[in-house]
C-alpha cells in the first residue's frame, strides 16, 4: 500500500496546486489584480475537487487493499480486476459525491487561509528582497544574536 499511496499522492499534489493556480489566474484581469476572499475560497474549493477527482480511483484501491484482512487480493492489479468484476465501474467512483462535498469547504478554507496569511505577513514589504535570507541577515539579524537563529525562508511570490 505504500507504493500505491505514493503513486496516488505524487500526481495529486501536482493537480492540487496547478488547479489552484489556474483558477486564480482565470479570475484575475492582470498581474496586479489582488483576488478577493470569495475568489480565493472558490479557487481553493475547486482545486480540492479537481485533486480528489483525479485520484479517487487510486484511493479506492488503496483503501480496499488496506482493509483486506483475509488476503483476498494479490496486489493492486488483482484488487482492481476483482473489484471491477464484483461491482463494475461504479466501484471506482462510489462515494465520490460525498468526498467532493467535503473537499470543497476544506480546501477552500485551507487555500484562502494560507494565501491571506501570507498576504498579511508580506503587507509591509515593498519588494521581494525581504525574502532573500542574506538580505534578512544583513538588515534584520541582531548583531549579537546566536548564529543558530532561523532565517526567513525564500517564499515564492503568490497572488
Offer a concise description of the structure.
By secondary structure, the chain is an all-alpha fold. It contains 5 helices and no strands.
How would you characterize the overall build of this protein?
The protein is mostly helical. The protein is about 65% helix and about 0% strand. Helix 1 (about 1-25) runs antiparallel to helix 2 (about 35-65), helix 2 crosses helix 3 and helix 2 (about 35-65) packs across helix 4 (about 95-120). The longest helix has about 30 residues, at about 35-65.
Helices and strands, with pairings:
Blueprint: H1 2-26, H2 37-67, H3 76-87, H4 96-122, H5 133-140
For the biggest sheet, the summary is: none
Number of strands: 0
Structural class, by secondary structure, is mainly alpha
Helix percentage: 55-70%
Measured between the Cα atoms of the first and last residue, the distance is 37 Å
**β-strand amount:** under 5%
| Average pLDDT level | 80
N-to-C series of helices and strands: HHHHH
SS summary, helix count: 5
Write out key terms for the chains shown.
159 residues
Amino acid at each position: 500500500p505504500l507504493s500505491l499511496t505514493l503513486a496516488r499522492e505524487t500526481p495529486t499534489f501536482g493537480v492540487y496546486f496547478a488547479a489552484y493556480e489556474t483558477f486564480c489566474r482565470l479570475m484575475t484581469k492582470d498581474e496586479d489584480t489582488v483576488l478577493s476572499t470569495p475568489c480565493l475560497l472558490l479557487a481553493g474549493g475547486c482545486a480540492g475537487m479537481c485533486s480528489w477527482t483525479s485520484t479517487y480511483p487510486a484511493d479506492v484501491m488503496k483503501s480496499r487493499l488496506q482493509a483486506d484482512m483475509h488476503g483476498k487480493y494479490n496486489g493492486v492489479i488483482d484488487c482492481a480486476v476483482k473489484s471491477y468484476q464484483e461491482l463494475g465501474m461504479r466501484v471506482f467512483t462510489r462515494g465520490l459525491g460525498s468526498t467532493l462535498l467535503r473537499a470543497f469547504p476544506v480546501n477552500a478554507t485551507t487555500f484562502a487561509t494560507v494565501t491571506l496569511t501570507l498576504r498579511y505577513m508580506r503587507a509591509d514589504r515593498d519588494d521581494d528582497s525581504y525574502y532573500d535570507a542574506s538580505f534578512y541577515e544583513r538588515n534584520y539579524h541582531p548583531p549579537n544574536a546566536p548564529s543558530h537563529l532561523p532565517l526567513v525562508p525564500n517564499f515564492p511570490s503568490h497572488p
